[in-house]
Amino acid sequence: MSCFRQLFTPIRIGSLELANRIVMPAIHLAYTPERLVTDRLVDFYQERAAGGVGLIIAGGCPVDEYGGGPSMIGIGRDGFVPGLTRLVDAVHREGVPIAAQLYHAGRYSLSAEIGRQALAPSALPSPLTRETPREMSREDIARTIGSFVAAARRAREAGFDAVEISGSAGYLLSQFLSPLTNQRDDKYGGSFENRMRFPLEVVQAVRGELGPEYPILVRIAGNDFVEGGNANPEAAVFAQRLEQAGVDAIDVTGGWHETPVPQITMGVPRGAFSYLARAVKAAVDIPVISSNRYNDPLLADSMLCSGAGDMIAMGRPLIADPQLPNKARQGRVADIQTCVACNQGCFDSIFLGQAVACLVNPRAGREARYRQPPPVESKQVVVVGGGPAGMQAAAAAASRGHRVTLLEREDRLGGQLNLAAVPPGREELQSLVRSLVNQLAKEGVEVQLGQEVTADLVLQASPGVVIVATGATPSAAEIPGADGHHVIRAWDVLAGRVDVGQRVVVLGGGATGCLVALDVARMGTIDAPTLKFLVQTRAESWETLERFTTTGTKHVTVLEALPKFGTDLGLTTRWTVLQELRRSKVSLVGEAPVRRITPAGVIALIGDQEQLFEADTVILATGVAAVRDLYNALLGHIDHLYLIGDAKEPRKAFDAVREGFETGTFL
Q1: Where does residue 161 fall: left (phi above 0), alpha (psi -120 to 50 degrees), or beta otherwise?
Q2: Within 10 A of 260 (CB to CB), how many other CB atoms are there?
Q3: Nearest by Cα to 424 from 206, 281, 265
Q4: Do residues 567 and 554 touch, judged by C-beta distance below 8 A?
Q5: What is the separation of C-alpha 544 from the centre of its chain, rounded to a whole number of angstroms?
Q6: What average pLDDT does range 122-126 have in this prediction?
Q7: 615: closest CA among 658, 557, 560, 543?
Q8: Is the pTM of this model over 0.90?
Q9: DSSP 8-class letter at 376
Q10: CA–CA distance from 517 to each of 120, 340, 422, 489, 586 (Å)?
Q11: Res 346 pLDDT > 90
């Protein structure tokens, strides 16, 4: 029996009725390398439609040559319509409506991608592209409005059920709205009323083209989160004006791409920005979509019941599990593969110029490739290692009909994910462990914990296939004094097996070093419930509260031989971790090769001088080495022997899960 009160009730956006209130927002997937709809894009969206989502918004779709790069979904020419129609038809076959997001990046467009200088309200450099756009003339403005109108006409011709106009995230319409990017002295600049003029003219022109009944949505920033930009009060006023201009729904997201406030990383609490939509909803009578960090349908339903919005946007959660709506509606919440907001496969890929993939769901974007028939012969498969690679390999192999046994030395599954989930803001990674454990149980994998695995033990089982996923172990530190009693390993700190002193020096500024430093630095800080209590009772000044939420009881220094820190962290996560380290008063010392460890601390070379960094505790985070002893012992004794994950080569969790999935799937 469903425990949901509102999430699976119908709702109308103008003339369009949705079966439920889950919306898949526009996400740049890079599945259309020449702007043309591909089989890959169609397969991806058709599977999400089959999963029971209420509305899909495809895009962004650049409205003209200035609007965005070649890997986005084209709608700027009539020649794109047949492909768009094929996409719409595929989604409609699953009984789900689909909208097209009409998009113009403005000064966020890269000249190398669009083949010309970008356009913007004013000729101000873009921090994102490091390029200066051309200020739009009146003719540019009129032509761009015409481009939105023509794109809307094509969307309707292709069969889309609605259009959404992109006015968020620092794109063109929001650039006109902001005094930071709009410094014009004509009727399109100056007062907020004037700065709203261009976005409203776009909406009015599109409404004039589509007529009064065709649904129009607008996606807005609930707060730019850029100093000197627009905040939630301005968003509410803009939403009111959009409603007056004939818009049928408002889609409220968070800040601009250049904001220093994290928006979608795992350190952002679930549903943290619901208050942005709540304020907009209070200002308008049309439906409001609440966006950002909703990966739990129970939370989504709770937010709807509390009045934070009328619909909930779930983008990456539907990449992670296309069946999320159906599973939730059927009461199978525990079966959902929860998005952990790691960004490794999605946003990191986009910033690297690659197509979207997913840590949690290795099939994402490759749906057709992994529609595999059952195996011809069921085999006895032994998987050694219960980290992400081993668990995923075991689940995938069992799903093909193989008989799978998973052997793990520790008393719990998860491997390094259990350690990675310890630092503040990384707790979401435990969701991946739970998801993989659930998959093992669902597929009937026999799991044996606390099992020290030897080659003889494996061979006694006479398996047809052995998959070795024995992971990695901390590398031996070849540093004089590394055997001192006050020298410990980062993994032991994260596992809670050791205590640390007041003065802590971390050796190694990679991902592990940065995260263990953050974990230690947060010791002694006040937690969220305490902060809420102290704020509500006004027990302390804000300055005092800020200090006690960011400054703990430890003095932490990170020494790194290279000039940069966290280079093995994902692109879209690294800056947030470094920001947190600085906020937590962690001292980051780069270009500091360690010479030796002494009872007094660590001596490193700074420039051409040795310097002592005093330490009660020295934490080693100097890398890991693959564990291959079992694999080497089995070589020549097992015909079908596979080495995967960190045991093959230490990498990110994304690589381990994908490798495990592919190995298990193709047995």
Answers
A1: alpha
A2: 11
A3: 265
A4: no
A5: 32
A6: 97
A7: 557
A8: yes
A9: S
A10: 42, 22, 12, 12, 7
A11: yes
